[in-house]
Amino acid sequence: MTNxxxxxxxxxASGAPAKIIIDTDIGDDIDDAFAVALALRSPEVQILGxxxxxxxxxxxxxxxxxxxxxSGRTDIPVAVGVATPPKGVFTQRVYAESGRFxxxxxxxxxxxxxxxxxxxxxxxxxxxxxxxxxxxxxxxxDPATFRKLKRVxxxxxxxxxxxxxxxxxxxxxxxxxNIVNDIPGxxxxxxxxxxxxxxxxxxTQLKMDETKREFLFRQATPLTEALSALxxxxxQQTPTLFDPMTIAFIDEAxxxxxxxxxxxxxxxxxxxxERGAPNAQVCLRSDPEAFFRFYLSHFGAPVGQKSAAxxxxxxxxxxxxxxxxxxxxxxxxxVTGTKFW
Length: 341
Ligand SMILES: [Ca+2]
What we know:
Elements: H1 10-14, E1 18-24, H2 31-40, E2 45-52, H3 57-70, E3 78-80, H4 93-96, H5 109-119, E4 124-129, H6 133-141, H7 143-146, E5 151-155, H8 177-180, H9 183-190, E6 196-199, H10 201-204, H11 210-217, H12 222-234, H13 244-251, E7 258-265, E8 271-274, E9 280-283, H14 288-297, H15 308-313, H16 323-336
Helix pairs in contact: 2-13, 5-6, 6-9
The chain binds calcium ion.
């Protein structure tokens, strides 16, 4: 197994945050919003832009406009991918259509991605948390420029286990949503020659239970309130945070240790590990409690103050945390029996 330490933790390796573009199908399931939120709270990354993919990409861009606006980040560009026939259920449509923070126009996702690659060749991590239509189109248009990405970090695929309760016996691998909805796009990616870091179903079925949700939403910051609004419009109870593992991995690679594999996407959308030269670094196991400790520690401190995670990483003993944050963490420790620091 190859330990990815140093490959993900960009800020400690180079002193500069990792430049990322997030390609998302935000608006159907809720985990994309939780992924964007973590990125917004991560000093390890610089979000160059957010591009939308799959289905009603224009509507998704409106959702991102508002989410960024409510969070005070109207500086982040939002680009719209090519629309495809709708397939999922756009659960967060009312939020998207409110008109709040709506931008007059959005650049094309493909043009935006290439503009950024040309500006920062070899530096950009493309974070793929939706079906791979933009990726496939970009590779089709200009594979040489696409290879100037530093890497792709993606949620997708199913190597040894399929969907299912993470506490039950593993179910057999199956075609995963992001792959099966654009199999040709996935096949192009895995043969494109760009470094791929893959977080499949095996390591991303991270159930956010009530205690964790309550802690997050009680922070009542503009960002957590935006998340809360989307969560309640989504209308289900327990989110599975598939997508946020990509951002967590970029922040702190130890959270999802990877190993080199040769992945082939077959015609049905299975991602099969076969013999051959490695074309992906794949994370097959993660520790959900470690993930949620990491995730939640990013949301407790008011903007401008250091969260516990930041303080830990800086080796600081005197953490700058608000009294409310300290009390909330004490509450969480009490109810979960988990030691946070
Ligand atoms: Ca997604």
